[in-house]
Amino acid sequence: MQAALGHPFVIALPFVVGVLFWLLALRERRRGLIQGQTFFQRNGTAVGLFLILAVGFWAVFMIVLPQLFMVELSFRPKLPPSAMGGPRDLYTLQNYHYFLYGSPVSSAEWNLVHLKAFVLTIFASIMVTIGNFLLCYPLAFYLAQVATAARLRFLLLLLITPYWVNEILRAFAFRVIFSSGGILNKILLGLSLVTEPIDFLGLDIGMYAGLSYAYLLLMVFPLYNAIENLPKAQIEAARDLGAPWWHIHLFVVMPFAKPGIASGCTLVFMLTSGALAAPLVLGGPRSLWFTPIVYDRFYQAFNWPQGAAYAFILLLTCIAFVLAVMRFGKLSLGEITR
Amino acid sequence: MTARAITRLMVGFYLVLFFAYLFGPLVIMSITAFNTSSYPAVVPFEGFTLKWFEILFRDKDMMIGLQNSLRIGVLVVLISVPCGLAGALVMQQVYARARSFYYLVVVSPVLTPGVIIGISTVIFWKDFSAATGTGFLYDGIILAALGQSSFISAYCMLIFLSRLQRFDRALEEAGLDLGASNVQVFWHILIPYLRPAVLSAAVMAFLSSFENYNTTTFAVLADKTLTTVLAGRVRQGSTPAISALAVSIIAITVAGTIVYELVKRREDARKAAELRTAQAAEQRELAAA
Predict the structure, then answer these.
(1) What pLDDT digit, counting tens, does each position of B214-243 carry?
(2) What SS3 class is residue B14?
(3) Among A114, A152, A336, B193, which is most buried by a count of CB atoms within 10 Å?
(4) Does any CB of chain A come closer than 8 Å to the CB of residue B112?
């Protein structure tokens, strides 16, 4: 199929959806299913126009169209500018084919380098998410149920402070610690625990530590918010009835805090799998994280359609993860993004 | 030792470990900023120096990046606070059948990896601005601001929504009944009510923009921001000048936090005092009656 028709179609799409909803609403109002003021009666012309223009610009031009353009581009071949819109500009699956099987001229059966990096990224992101949950749950519980008001305020301040320092600098801090001439190796050598420096960065230990550190806060706060709403009486009741401490957490606190747990896990997974700073700064020469590969498709290989395809694959994975969490926890999107 | 004391000890130990993990790396990095050793190191501490700060402030790229970051931050505040506000107001009124779809669309940037937002912003504006003759929009600063605003607006919207939940619409209706126009009601009733939310949304928007890397590095094209310059420097090699930058940011943050706490405490004290005088006055009146 010719790719030149793609853009007008894609641009029309959000407007068509908007008009369809508007027509549906109009029909229901005629039939008396919707009562009360219309949008412009309620807000007045000026405010109503502001609302429609601001939301329209944001939703259509900043969210929907960029994503649709990216998806559309991922199905196009890489062509020199002069050939765009020409007879060779046909929709194709070659970018996805490349992700799975590699270059057509290579002899390897699968594109192992990219596939391995992708699987490793997803697996490591899940491990980092679980690790962060285990690390943060006790703290969130302590903050929400045990700490006194004054101490709570102080600890919350302490928690937020490191996060004003940007991601790159936080990753750099880990490099100072883990590099072969870094403080950790100096201590190990000084104590004669090892005879030569351990290559923490090459072993990716630095990268995993940096990744889990980077988004710790986004796990603590949803958990804290959810557990805070749990009445203390419920915990006391469980305790009075003789439940051991781990029973209380597993069967009273965690089911109650499920939306918070889902929300924290989704955010951490999404940010970790899409992380760029920590892998760039802390990744060893042999370690492959998926996002730097996407980056290289754009700015090293200058193959934008392929980069778009890779980005879309990452996006689909994140959507699948969110859907899985929603299905698994029987939650709605509103509960996760609260 | 009782079981209770053991539990307390364990909780304390865990808290100390957690905050050591949180602050340890930053403290170690900060120390390296003052060591004369040209490789960022804590031991051996060869001597105290401030030269890394001097090198940092003479670094032209960093300073250009800083200016661009500030510009983008201001643009992001100007775009995302109004968009977030409009998004929240529309959320309350939108046609019931479209509500969950609308929510899905405007909240999706929060759950989308930043690199993807950056990539899609560049791809869209490259073609769209060329096709519509608005080539001036295909500019690193503007694209970075647009890309960041797509998810920062959603954060702002969530802030506004939580404040709007407690808003009493009767106030608006009273204003309208007394003859105010919709615009007057918007400026004199709704916005004053939302002022705390507007302030926190603006501060949050600026800070998220300032420290963003993933979206910016794609969307900023050939321009530089502080974070992208920094990323380039860090990849080239470690120098204590980077630690010096971190120390500067930490110092500004800590100062900001302390000022914020002091202002808040003073306000709390003022409010408590007002409450006390009001209660005292009420009691006097009751006693008189």
Answers:
(1) 899 888 888 888 888 888 888 777 788 888
(2) helix
(3) A336
(4) yes
